[in-house]
Amino acid sequence: MNKSTTLIRNISFLFLLLFAISSCSDKKQKSQPPLSISVVKAIQQDVPIYQDFIGQVYGQFDIPIRTRVVGFLDSIHFEEGRSVKKGQLLYTVDPQPLQTTVAGEMSSLAEAKTQLAKAESDLNRIKPLAKINAVSKSDLDAAQAEYDAAVAYVQAVKSSVRLANINLGYCWIKSPITGLIGKTAAKEGEYVGQDPNPVILNVVSTIDIVHVEFYLVESDYLGLARDFIESQRQKQDANYIKKENKYGKLQLILSDGTTFKYDGGINFIDREVNPETGSLLIQSSFPNPDYLLRPGMFAKVRAKMNVVKNAIIVPQRCIMELQGTHSVYVVSDSNKVETRQVTTGYKFEDYWIVSKGLKANEKVVIDALQKVKPGMTVMPKDTIFVSKAPTQ
């Protein structure tokens, strides 16, 4: 057998082998079942729309503690960061200079009283003499004028004494309210009461209720304003006695992402929109019995702005985005995969509102999006999606 015949036989055998392998592969592919893919049904329900606004926390009352006299700070009578009572002594400014002033005014008062006594004595002596014309009428008038001037001078000096005592009383600085006091701005021995030295020594705040202030643009204002007006109307209604509506339905999202456990409500809307920023100041109140919130903190105020009726929602991870276009994979009744372009709206928890492109109960691919292609036959596996977002 020549070499040519052997080569032809080898090539024929190779083709037969490749054909057999290809046939086995085709049979194997045809025998594979459709890919099992997790799907969720598009849900139709009313969806509340929430919006977050950056706010700052203030005490219900934040009262600055000022020194109204100038002098050296003599002593401090409280612990920083602790509660203080109304009328509690907080600071003492050295009273000696003002005590000296009071002493000087008291001396002036004693002198004025002496002058008054002399003027009164002279007037009492001249009056009987004037009745018998022993002295002239001008002498009587002069004595009366001197007496009246002495009386007025005594009253003036008494006012100076009262003022000096008032200023002396300012040396003992007391708390105007019961609340939480902060860090002192001056230490013992410092000269206070005149710039650049501290005039405001501290701040006392009541924080069992706190105010959170935030700003709204005009377009967001109307919805909250209507709710606020309605709540005020209900409060004026004699039948409105529900305790749960005392504060309202605002939520506070703290800086660590957690939701404050007490709801709040709007208690103040500013008079006008700032023409430079186009925003409006809103003040809300939140109960703070645990004293968790402190003045100066920043937090997000979450407010319900609207309710979308009969909205179609799907989990956010079902939606693919490419160059600003959103789409989903939908599994038809014949288990065929098709690409569906959708129009998205607001986000809600872990869901996205689909305003166009989906109907209620349509099956949407949620997992393994990279494994499916349009036209592929799959085996849909119904999945219950559980949102991991905090409840709003």
Structure description:
30% of the residues lie in helices and 36% in strands. It is α+β, with helices and mostly antiparallel strands and 392 residues long. The protein has four domains: 86 residues, conserved putative lor/sdh protein from methanococcus maripaludis s2 fold (Beta Barrel); 109 residues, Efflux pump adaptor protein, beta barrel domain (Elongation Factor Tu (Ef-tu), domain 3, Beta Barrel), CATH 2.40.30; 49 residues, RNA polymerase II/Efflux pump adaptor protein, barrel-sandwich hybrid domain (OB fold (Dihydrolipoamide Acetyltransferase, E2P)), CATH 2.40.50; 74 residues, Helix Hairpins. Strand 15 and strand 16 form a beta hairpin. The chain starts with a helix and ends in a 10-residue tail after the last strand.
Salient structural properties:
392 residues; alpha+beta; conserved putative lor/sdh protein from methanococcus maripaludis s2 fold; Elongation Factor Tu (Ef-tu), domain 3; OB fold (Dihydrolipoamide Acetyltransferase, E2P); 4 domains; 15-stranded mixed beta sheet; 4-stranded antiparallel beta sheet; 4 helices; 36% strand; rod-shaped
